Amino acid sequence: MRFDSLHQILSPSMAAPLSCILMECAKAIEGGRLDVADSLLAVIQSLASKEESIWRRKVVKYFAEALVRRAYEIRPLCALPSLPVLCDPGDCIYEPLYEFAKITSKHAIPDALNSGYRRLHIIDFSIVFDFRLWNSLIGDLKRQYGGLQSVLITSIAPKLSKHTDYLRKNRERGEDTNLELKQLTCNSPDDIVNCISKLRRKSEDEIVVVNWNYILHKLLSQDGAMEQVLSKVKDLGADIMVIVEEDANLNSPDLSERLEQSFQYYSLFFESLEEDYGSDVFWGMYFRRQIGNVVACEGVDRVERIESFAHLQNRLSRAGFCPVPQQVHNLKIDFGLNLVDHRIEEKEGHFLLRRNGCPLAVASVWKVTDPPQFSGGEESNSILSFLFSCYTNYPSINSLSVFSL
Prior knowledge:
CATH class of the largest domain: Alpha Beta
Number of helices: 15
Strand content: 15-25%
Radius of gyration: 23 Å
């Protein structure tokens, strides 16, 4: 729906959807017409207060808040939540997203193992490190592969709390279960590059798994960071790379387009929170922070640069990775959520998580197209990467007072 004047938007006969008014407000802000934006925000506040749906009111409120922050350059809340002490990972992330990532790793890693491996190194990039998940998986692997002698888990996660008790607790759990655990923190793309640059493959009988849970897209906020990290993964000789990401295209340079796509996407989550969970304050805050980052920020501050899976496929292929097809049958069995509206589907060897037919997340497994030999030099690997590249390139404010919805 297009409006040629503010009068049309304010006219009761137009009955403009709130999402359309939000987009008009975004255009006014981008055009420097803050007086028009203020008028539109007043309309949004008035109409949203009459909205019967609680989750719709919340979505509109959070997008309007983000536009206010953008218009008046008020720094948004950090895109990642601050966690209470010893918070359970399952409490931090919207449950279907958390379970989807968990079972993807659970099935992808055993499929990559064989009896020749004696050592396992898991490099885990997750918003919150889930020790219980890995402990359970490692126990199953040791029973299945009797020759597995040692396991190292390197957790590279953002620091979400000023408290360090959770880091100590993880170390104690590792000691109790005979797992070697290394914990590193990353709060920027540079941190991720530096962390992975320090890692080395120890021997030929070691399998290296790199696991990304809703983190990889954040590298796009810094030019070249994605390419650097993928190059380091190749140099490391990782056997497989498991990637789970939200399935949307929220990285458009055009604010109005980005707002339109993100409004549709995040509405799915808030509808689910209301209908499936009776609301959840912590998960709602997580998505609220994402909305603020997507709408209010630009440059290196905009870290929530979620892209479509087609964009991700293209990036990985150009970097010298190829997909490892997965089977969805066992994944469906283990998706033990009593949520009738959620489904896992297989599409061309990767997995999709959908709610009422709408995509929420996508999971895929990758390997290096031409894996380097453990004892080889770097020159030949660089040549192979160059040739492959040539081939693939060929034809803080909790809530603003103006929004008490």
